[in-house]
Specification:
With about 400 residues, the protein is mainly alpha-helical. It is built from 19 helices and no strands. It starts with a helix and ends with a helix.
Length: about 400
């Protein structure tokens, strides 16, 4: 009897990780509740609600007009009513459209509803991709929720959880050779946070998987045509003007390499070089869908010139994907090292994460070699098999 109970106990490291992550998430929930009770309108979600209110009142072609955004922000608490180069709606039009049902609600109700929707989407995405039993999945989900970029995205009412969910679905579909639906899901992800997955279609194309990219392009063309029709020439001009206002503020890129080398040509050159290397590794490892997808996301975050703290949360999708196969010891160690690197962002120190990403990129490229060197390669799982690859390459 005693031996039976011992056999059913989870490994000590798994139980400890789950408990520690649970405490961290509990702390995050306390912060969410406090934010909800004290300042539910002081988060980025309000910008999407403001744009939705402008669209419903004046027409969707006016959602990027700064003066109308300022007018719609009146009545909110003093910090929330500010519309400036740090607080301005520049997201794609669908983010305003989808929040139209909440535009007439109070900030507290809107924030609560959006948080619940985002949390359900995030958990469902993790459950879809993560391997292992229930305890393993719950533990990894708790660790993911405890990461500062993920927590901050929820706390700020961001749309990054929706992007994570759609990209997870896109990968899951592509792994099963359902390339058309995968491309559609990827295009929908671009409706929320295009800067978080910008190089992913190029990565898939370089790996020979042109069919999901074609579906992405067709779906994206329909969506963009709808955007353009809803905005009109004047609305598009206002959007471009708002983007220039945001980009003129250096504080809007805290998770880019400009934080280290400054906003100059050196930063641009470094970001382009890292993207080029990552895409080179994509081509080199083109037979591994999991590595191609993950490298596409890492290439995006490393090459971005506009990236906030919550945007790097997109890397949890890449982590979930590579965890679906048996990992080498260096890869496992570096994934664990990514946890404190992400937490340092909470105290204004993004350098550990900026340094962590290129090394992870290199490890992703070396992963098959490291696994062979360890001599413990098992029968490939779905993400490693070339059968699905052949049907999506010409």
């Amino acid at each position: 009897m005693r031996d039976s109970l011992t056999a059913r106990r989870p490994p000590l490291w798994l139980a400890a990780a789950g408990l520690s992550a649970g405490y961290t998430v509990a702390f995050g929930v306390v912060r969410w509740v406090d934010h909800f009770l004290t300042q539910p309108d002081v988060q980025d979600l309000r910008l999407h609600l403001i744009a939705a209110r402008v669209g419903l009142k004046y027409g969707w072609s006016h959602i990027y007009e700064v003066d109308l955004q300022k007018e719609a922000a009146r009545g909110l608490s003093p910090p929330a009513s500010v519309i400036d180069s740090m607080h301005l709606f520049i997201s794609p039009p669908p983010t305003a459209w989808m929040l139209a049902p909440l535009a007439g609600q109070s900030p507290a109700v809107s924030y609560l509803v959006w948080t619940v929707i985002s949390l359900v989407a995030f958990v469902a995405a993790g459950w879809l991709l993560l391997p292992g039993g229930r305890l393993t999945r719950v533990t990894v989900l708790l660790v993911s929720l405890g990461l500062w970029p993920v927590h901050y995205g929820f706390w700020d009412g961001q749309t990054v959880a929706g992007t994570i969910a759609l990209l997870a679905v896109s990968y899951w579909l592509l792994e099963r050779d359902r390339w058309a639906l995968s491309g559609v899901a990827m295009a929908l992800a671009f409706c929320l946070k295009p800067q978080d997955a910008l190089l992913l279609p190029l990565a898939l194309l370089l790996s020979g998987r042109w069919r999901p990219v074609a579906a992405f392009a067709v779906t994206g063309a329909v969506i963009v045509a709808t955007w353009a029709a809803s905005l009109g020439p004047a609305g598009i001009a206002s959007w471009l003007n708002d983007i220039s206002i945001i980009r003129s503020n250096p504080y809007n890129s805290p998770l880019t390499y400009s934080f280290i080398v400054g906003h100059n040509a050196a930063a641009t050159g470094l970001e382009l070089a890292l993207a080029f290397i990552a895409l080179g590794l994509v081509w080199y490892r083109r037979d591994r869908l999991d590595l191609v997808f993950s490298l596409g996301l890492v290439a995006t975050t490393m090459s971005a010139s506009y990236l906030h703290e919550f945007d790097v949360a997109i890397l949890v999708v890449a982590a979930w994907i590579v965890m679906r196969t048996r990992l080498s010891l260096p890869m496992r160690i570096w994934l664990v090292a990514g946890i404190p690197a992400a937490q340092f962002i909470a105290i204004g120190l993004p350098i550990p994460m900026l340094l962590w990403q290129p090394i992870w990129m290199a490890l992703l490229g070396l992963e098959p070699w490291m696994r062979r060197r360890e001599g413990t390669i098992a029968v490939p799982r779905e993400s490693e098999r070339p059968l699905a690859l052949d049907s999506s390459r010409s």
